[in-house]
Amino acid sequence: MRLIIQKITNFVKKKYQLVGKKRLFLNIIIAFFIVLILVLIDQLTKNLIFSWEDYEISSKKGFIKNISWGFIGFRPLLHQGVTSQINKIVGFTVIHIFAFLLSVILLFLIPFSKKISLTIFMAILLAGNWGNEIDRILNNNTVKDLLFLPFYSSSGTFNFADIFIFAGPIGIILVHAVDIFKNLNWKKIKNTKKHNSGNDKNNF
């Protein structure tokens, strides 16, 4: 156990040295405000646009309220589980454990992020995770959905937390993809192509 703690301590020290004190605190401040604002947006829209009774009645009798602004619409729906329906296979205990572990991982990674863009997208994912997890804890594993796309009949009903959960990982992947693209040794690739094309000519 002492060896594990020592390894973790050394790992954290190395990460701290790579990032530096200023960047570490900057990451924490940026992530704090992003998570705070996005969780507030998610929870306030869920609880102020429609009442709990609206959600309950719509879930039993169909959508009793339907507000359309053309590009976006609002309708109340209580959704038990997660969008992928994986809760039917693994159960809600596993969903809660996964949400907790994801939070721990993100809370650890965010301070040591070397890129502000990566910090932002990880914070967005964390906000989405917390937004729906708050619902599950407070509402007996049900999540309040209220958004839909009026111009797309198969869009289903979702919430802001779902958008954040979708946008966060995509942003993280894009940041890493751009890094990989930038770090490619284009000179080496170009020379390799020239060398290969020269060999092909010699073969003829």
From TrEMBL:
Source taxon at top rank: Bacteria
One Pfam family linked to the record: Peptidase_A8
GO MF, any single term: aspartic-type endopeptidase activity
GO biological process, one term: proteolysis
Record carries keyword Transmembrane: yes
Keywords annotated in UniProt: Lipoprotein, Membrane, Transmembrane, Transmembrane helix
UniProt-listed InterPro entries: Peptidase_A8
GO cellular component: membrane
Transmembrane segments: 24-41, 89-109, 116-132, 158-181
Family under the similarity heading: Belongs to the peptidase A8 family.
Listed name of the protein: Lipoprotein signal peptidase
Lineage: Bacteria, Bacillati, Mycoplasmatota, Mycoplasmoidales, Metamycoplasmataceae
Gene (name only): lspA
